[in-house]
Amino acid sequence: MKKGALIVISGPSGTGKGTICSLLCRQNPNMHCSISLTTRFPRKGESDGINYHFLTEAKFKTLIKQGSLLEWAKVYGHYYGTLQQQVEEKRVQGRDVILEIDTQGAKQVRSKMKDAALIFLLPPSMDELWARIQGRGTDSPAAIKERFAAAYREIQEIWKYDYVVTNENVSETVRKVEAIILADKCRVGRNKKILCSLKEGEK
Predict the structure, then answer these.
(1) What are 82's strand-pairing partners?
(2) How many structural domains does the chain have?
């Protein structure tokens, strides 16, 4: 069985990463959206094991020391991370794994998993991003300003990614990401076994 792809999707808060990832996994049974670990408290409507795995800070730091995390970062005062074992288990089963993580985490994934495909999601404009962040209704005015300032910093990291998609229309964005994943599976580096078998068969 061919190993599944590893797809990283990043972008500023308010670009619709969660919506895009959910639709990708809902419409493609072979895709698996990895559930991140976090030390923050659940927001209204969130459930453990569905939105996030909610951990204590002590437990999270233990996982860091054990080297159990594929990536981790501290964002807005809370820790977020991804268990490496869970990702690898799904990929070995042939499933494509999608990680919805920030630029700090993406950098760690790139250093550990050279075959990962990194996609950066952009808003249609910064004015639209401001409106989306305000429209969340979960943040204080100070937090909104902090998120908007962080968005500018994150966008500077875009040159370290493989692909960029502007999320103007959700359905179109999902189609573009699906196309990227399909194309990524055709990379020479992901098909070495097939190429080597052809070479061995030369007469």
Answers:
(1) 71
(2) 1
